Amino acid sequence: MGGAGIPAEDLPYVWDAFFMSDKSRSRSEGGSGLGLALADRIVKLHFRKNEHPCICPREFPLCVCGKQPKGICITKKPVLPTEAETKENSRAKSAKLRVFEKI
Fold first, then answer.
1. From CA 71, how far away is CA 48, in angstroms rounded?
2. Where along the chain do its domains lie?
3. Residue 33 and residue 15: Cα distance in Å, rounded?
4. For the segment 4-32, what is each residue's pLDDT rounded down to a tens digit?
């Protein structure tokens, strides 16, 4: 598969915007370090829009737009892998699980 992977000391930072594990690379060579941070933001935004789709102004006492929620976000904070899971699969260290249940 891929290369050597991400060093263990860098794993807590892989979800931070602009973080680049490979210090020898610069932004002039391509890449901005936004990949995982941007993907996480897109998932959170998608969940939020589907959980609260109403576009009515907040001052309206009732919803008049008729948009219904498509589900509920089960995990407000991401579920991170356990120590046992990371021992079994070292690549799980950078995993984040978010759960959205369809109504």
1. 10
2. 8-102
3. 9
4. 677 778 877 777 776 777 665 555 555 55
